[in-house]
Amino acid sequence: MDIDIKELIKAAAEGIDLKDFKGDVVGVKVVENEIGNVEAGGIGVQIYHEKCSPMVTNTEEDVKSAIEKLMEARDENGTYIMRDQDQWYAVFRVLSAKCGFPQKPKNFVVTMANLGLDNLRVPCKYESFRKVSLHNLPQNVDLWHQYQNTADQYSMKQVTVAVRLMELMG
Questions:
Q1: Helix ranges (DSSP H) in 17-148
Q2: Global pTM?
Q3: Widest pairwise Cα distance in the chain
Q4: Residues 38, 105: contact at Cβ < 8 Å?
Q5: CA-CA distance, 15 to 20, in Å (whole number)?
Q6: Nearest-CA neighbor of 98 among 42, 132, 51?
Q7: Are 166 and 52 in contact, with CB atoms under 8 Å apart?
Q8: How far apart are the C-alpha atoms of 10 and 31, rounded to whole Å?
Q9: Per-residue pLDDT of the chain (170 residues; tens, 9 = 90+)
Q10: Fewer CB atoms near the end CB (10 Å): N or C, the chain?
Q11: Sequence-ordered alpha helix ranges (H) in the chain
Q12: Residue 131 DSSP code
């Protein structure tokens, strides 16, 4: 029995019991904010029901443009706001929470490379993610803007990048 994947996803979204479908159903979720996640060995659809509000713009070109602008953004002293590799964590948090990007740092780094964002002034490397410890910030990236004046110096680097990226993306 050939099953149209759209029918299968629609059925799952509507809560229909999938036991009547023949074949292997590995996982079906409702797609809300999908940019396109292709994993080795096949196409994987990742869906996220976020507590964060979704961005207005979420195409690959919008994201790429915003990150390129972020790389050139400077503070009031003329210093780049994105200056350390560990600040990619803030980019990762914004894009995974608000645009459906991968929620695992390794997959996120691969996605950035696939978008051609691996040769920027501050490169995105997986090793950078393992060093980040933000115990003073909430999980919900939408709340980070509230910490712009109160975060410790280390967390402030992340907050500044996250807030600026969200501004650039609308």
A1: 60-72, 88-98, 105-114, 126-130
A2: 0.65
A3: 65
A4: no
A5: 13
A6: 51
A7: no
A8: 10
A9: 455 666 656 666 666 655 555 554 444 444 444 444 444 444 444 433 334 444 444 588 889 999 999 999 999 999 999 999 889 999 999 999 988 899 999 999 999 999 988 889 999 989 878 777 766 778 888 888 888 878 888 888 888 999 999 999 88
A10: N
A11: 5-13, 60-72, 88-98, 105-114, 126-130, 153-169
A12: T
Q: Whose structure tokens read 């807030």?
A: 163
Instruction: Report, in this order, helix, strand and coil percent for the chain, each rounded to 5.
Output: 45, 5, 50
Q: Whose structure tokens read 């997986």?
A: 126
For 10, the token pair is: 């629609």
